[in-house]
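Researcher: Next sequence.
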Amino acid sequence: MIPATQHHPFEPLFDEKSSILILGSFPSIKSRETGFYYGHPQNRFWRVIASLFSAPLPHTVDEKRALLSSSHIALWDSIASCTISGSSDSSIKNAIPNDISMILSAAPIRSIFCNGQASFRCYNRYIFPCIDIPATCLPSTSAANASWSFERLIEAWKIIYIQSKHD
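Model: Next structure:
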């Protein structure tokens, strides 16, 4: 069975104080089912961000939005649509990038980070040539990235916290 083209179901999250932009690749099946970013309970994104900012682990969408806002983090994905088998980034084909210009024009973004290689590849191939702002690739918070322990993720992602303190 050939996978159907999937279209990104979420709007970007940002406000006028967002100085850091984190781009994932494309929402997982579980995220699409739950209707919000990083919806798979095994994905460590929310644990990492909460730990970095010494905040309680958010459970509701409102709590997740509040954590990002208070941390001056904007969140979206590099890919607007693609064909994908299940939730596997390695199966992504025919990627069409998101246009992040609306975020850049409305928020004082100083640093862009990609959550994993798939996001980083898409960013560098399609988005970077249009905006000329380099991104930093961080190790994926996905449970599929099992070679990275939670502690190692925190160490790598600590740059997010450091950059946020330059606000």
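Model: The chain is about 35% helix and 20% strand. The beta strands are 5-7, 20-24, 73-77, 79-83, 93-97, 111-115, 135-138.
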